[in-house]
Amino acid sequence: MAAELLKIHPQNPEGRKVAHVVDVLRKGGIVIYPTDTIYGIGCDLMNRKSIERLCRIMDIKPQKLDLSFICNDLSHISEYVRKIDTPVFKILKKALPGPYTFILESSSKVPKILDVNKRTVGIRIPAHNIPLDIVKLLGNPLITSSIKDDDVIKEYTTDPEEIYEDFKNDVDLVIDGGPGGNVPSSVIDCTNEEITIIRRGLGDVDKII
Q1: CB burial class (10 A; 0-12, 13-18, 19+) of residue 89?
Q2: Locate the YrdC-like domain: which residues (predicted)?
Q3: Which sequence spans correspond to the domains of the chain?
Q4: Residue (of 72, 73, 10) closest to 39 by Cα position
Q5: Which of 24, 51, 126, 201: disulfide with 184, CB 3.0–4.6 Å?
Q6: How confident is the model over 123-176, as pLDDT tens digits?
Q7: For the whole model, what pTM was predicted?
């Protein structure tokens, strides 16, 4: 059965539509949704079968799982990472919500959830109301990956209807929140004493670290 294509207002997401997305996620569904950077694909972090399915769709081995968590605020993060040092916390507070992925040391909870011994985890709080509202209502983070394009020139697909055509037989729901971006998040590693920029994407990294 083909996926559902659901239009949601990007600035003021309709509550009943957000509730419908959350219902799909709670039933083990895979959802494609907009962020402040590019469109993402994800599922409920607490549903292991969904994670296995997501890995199959993205052609990732579960043991090599390297996906990010979408959280809705800094207090949400604290459940999934070890104690954050004050300098790092100040950076997170300055940067989030925003187009950044922070690599942090995972808490003991993460390997139990994923059944994979992960020492680090990527954390995102996007500056986009649709994923923030979804995660807030769901009560758990989404585990997520970026939507990539097979076209070597156009690395990221920006048109939600095009994304729908590409993924309609793999996922359960595609959210149309308007055109997406084509620049991914900046990735910042905070697991060592010296903070390292892994990828310069969207956002002015030099202003926050």
Answers
A1: middle
A2: 15-203
A3: 4-207
A4: 10
A5: 201
A6: 999 999 999 999 999 999 999 988 765 544 446 778 999 999 999 999 999 999
A7: 0.92
